[in-house]
Amino acid sequence: MQLVAWVAICLAAAVLLRDRLIALIVVCLVLWAAVPGVASVMVTGVARGNPLAFHFATWLILLTFAVQMVHQFHAMIAQLTRHVFVFLGLTVFLVAAFLTSRSGQSGGGLVLFLSQMVGPILLFWMTVVAIAERPERLALIRNWLLAIAAIQSVLAVIEWSLGGVLLYREYYATNYWFDEVNFPRWMGTLDHPLTLSLLICAVLPLLSGVRSVWLQLGLMLVLLAGLLATQSRTGLAVAVLGVVYVLTTSPMKPMTRFLALSVVIGSGAWVASSQLSAGVAQRLTEDGGSAGAREAALTFFYDNLPNFLFTGGGIGSASGVAERGGLTTSLESSFLIYAVDLGALFTLLYFGTQLALVVRSFGPSTCRGLWLAGLLVVIVPQTFNALNSQTFAGVLVWTIVGLCTAMADRRLDATERSVESRSADRLPNSSRARRDETTPSVRFAVDPRP
């Protein structure tokens, strides 16, 4: 009954807001960030193990897409035909993923299929459509992503100061890794500390497009504090790259840039000596076997690649395969996990499509830092099992890839209009020249008298 009520609410929202697609996209992102996947049962009443136990925001994505296909069919199909090879490749991947999900022993395969593959890809499609209608919506989605990251960072720092999560403790406790004493890494209301790290790494380059220097610096410090609360070493290294990019590409006067750099360095020195950085500092000195686990996962995958080249064991099978292979952890990479689950070639098609769309956005941009954000959301998930469970990572990755795609489309359209405009400017001159050549004979051939 709870699920039926939620589906009815989603359908009503999708219909009532059918002319405000951008609002529905933002709501989907906010809902995914506000409630972790393990707590989705609060809304739907569907427990883990059920094929319908996917995140409740996925229902809103699916129903919004269905309504949009009816409401603005031509706009949706226009983007489909414009990126026909992209959607063809993704369709091939989804068909392979669906067929393998049927081999699962529980509903987990279908859950991941819908929440981490179908739902995010449909959100990508709608994002491109929404921005194609009104290009300024790109900046709107960017601002919402920055706001979500800032709020989650503040929550993570508060959790660090209190020594415990603020919300959803009973649901987080169902995760094998959750331990507030022995695993004091914080994530706000997201699904895992590394998911928050991915979000922060992705949005940091987008700060270069924020006009106010002091708002830019304030958000940067908040995001870096949140990153330290996650204790992510990879995130820390990527964040350094993001900070350097922002400080070097933002339009600032020399003195303002010097002051901004001084603030960042001073704040970094203070934080480095505080307890907030103690956790990540300890992880930098004491690896805890993490690097060895990743090396073992790569070795195992390489040795067994022929078994997973064309087909996999089904969605969710990677953990069992890794355990039978003697590994004590997961494969520690979204690519490796998907390759074992679905086959290396289909996995290469999936992540290769993402990378191609991001690379296509390289060049002059109306949204500074977006190309780097896109590159990071494709690369960073390959350093942990970001997309192998119900997390915010799936919609985050495909939303930013959608922004990159829309920006590249806009630049291509502007280039084509510029070429057409230059051609049109030259056309009257040539037409006039031809007219001048033919007009005299016409004038003299016609008797002007009535």
Automatic annotation (TrEMBL):
InterPro entries: WaaL-like. The chain crosses the membrane at residues 24-45, 52-74, 80-99, 111-132, 144-168, 189-207, 213-246, 258-278, 335-359. Keywords: Membrane, Transmembrane, Transmembrane helix. Residues 419-450 are annotated as: Disordered. The keyword Transmembrane helix applies. PANTHER family: LIPOPOLYSACCHARIDE BIOSYNTHESIS PROTEIN PA4999-RELATED (PTHR37422:SF13), TEICHURONIC ACID BIOSYNTHESIS PROTEIN TUAE (PTHR37422). This is O-antigen ligase family protein. It comes from Nakamurella flava. The lineage of its organism: Bacteria, Bacillati, Actinomycetota, Actinomycetes, Nakamurellales.
